[in-house]
Design brief:
The structure holds 2 protein chains of 2 kinds.
Chain A (H helix, E strand, L loop, with lengths): L4 H12 L8 H17 L5 H12 L1 H20 L5
Chain B lengths: L6 H6 L6 H19 L8 H17 L10 H21 L5 H7 L19 H15 L2 H11 L4 H8 L3 H21 L4 H8 L9
Helix pairs in contact in B: 2-3, 2-4, 3-4, 6-9, 7-9, 8-9
Classes of the chains: A mainly alpha, B mainly alpha.
């Protein structure tokens, strides 16, 4: 099989940021709520949560879900006087 | 008043007399969130959102013991609901696409040649692409190549897992192992990660948009 130049370009970028230890998608989901709240409130992201950020740069599916989570949290925050 | 993150798990426990009310509140919140998160998505109609909310409630209850209180309970629950929703949306979208069809769309070609190493580190984009083609064939297993091909064609990992009879975690590991093998091969050829990223830094990255 072969790949298009665009696909190879994406792969080269992904290889460039590959780490020996990475979160998988389930592990990302386990931490992504905390990461999203840190991002929204400007709280400092711990080293463990940096792994979430790294996964989101590699995984287009988790990134898509994360972007929508941020949108939802912002919308709920706007419509509610107190968040839980 | 909205329950606190501490109260939600207790209210959702099987023995709690308030459980039905808590489930109804959570369901309402999930539906509201799903409307926002899925607005404008093809296939995300009212019936779909109701179904996803129900599936999400089941998954949230199953995973309740893993909630550690590191975020608001509602944030945690919404993240799960969005995962459930996107798995279903992607499944519908990719229902009729097979990995074999993707392989047929990407036939072998023999124009990939090894570039000469550049001692000054001025690796060109074209030579890196050519080299990557070569390394994919030389360094990866057929299964790793299949996973990369599917991922680079944006096939969802759950769909790849189903078609290959594996779990999503296994698919991620196969892709990760493949990227690590390619990275090692690049480094063995004298290219650092900084070289590789530098060459592609000026082109747009759809994964970080
Ligand atoms: Zn992921």
């Amino acid at each position: 099989m072969s790949f298009t130049s665009e696909q190879i370009s994406n792969l080269v970028r992904q290889v460039g940021i590959t780490r020996d230890s990475e979160l998988n998608c389930n592990e990302c989901l386990h931490h992504v709520a905390e990461f999203a709240e840190c991002e929204l409130t400007g709280r400092q992201v711990t080293e463990a949560l940096e792994a979430v950020r790294h996964h989101l740069t590699l995984c287009i599916e988790c990134k898509e879900e994360y972007d929508e989570l941020l949108k939802v949290l912002r919308a709920l925050d706007d419509s509610s006087p107190a968040a839980s | 008043m909205t329950p606190s993150s501490h109260e939600w798990p207790a209210r959702l426990a099987p023995a709690c007399i308030d459980r039905d009310a808590a489930l109804a509140e959570l369901r309402t919140l999930l539906i509201k969130g799903l409307h926002t998160g899925l607005s404008g998505r093809a296939g995300a109609d009212e019936g779909f959102i109701e179904d996803v909310a129900q599936m999400s409630l089941v998954r949230i209850l199953d995973h309740l013991p893993s909630f550690e209180g590191r975020s608001a309970f509602t944030t945690w629950a919404l993240a799960i609901a969005l995962r459930v929703a996107f798995i279903e949306l992607r499944r519908k979208h990719w229902n009729d696409v097979s990995l074999d069809a993707l392989k047929e769309q990407n036939p072998d070609h023999a124009d990939a040649t090894e570039p000469s190493p550049d001692p000054l580190g001025q690796a060109s984009r074209a030579s890196l692409i050519t080299m990557m083609h070569r390394l994919i064939q030389r360094e990866l297993t057929p299964l790793q190549r299949d996973v990369l091909l599917a991922e680079l064609n944006a096939m969802p990992q759950d769909e790849i897992a189903t078609q290959l009879g594996r779990t999503r975690n296994t698919i991620y590991k196969l892709g990760h192992d493949a990227r690590r093998a390619l990275k090692r091969a690049f480094e063995a050829a004298g290219y650092t990660a900084a070289d590789v990223l530098g060459v592609f830094a000026e082109t747009s990255n759809p994964l970080s948009s």
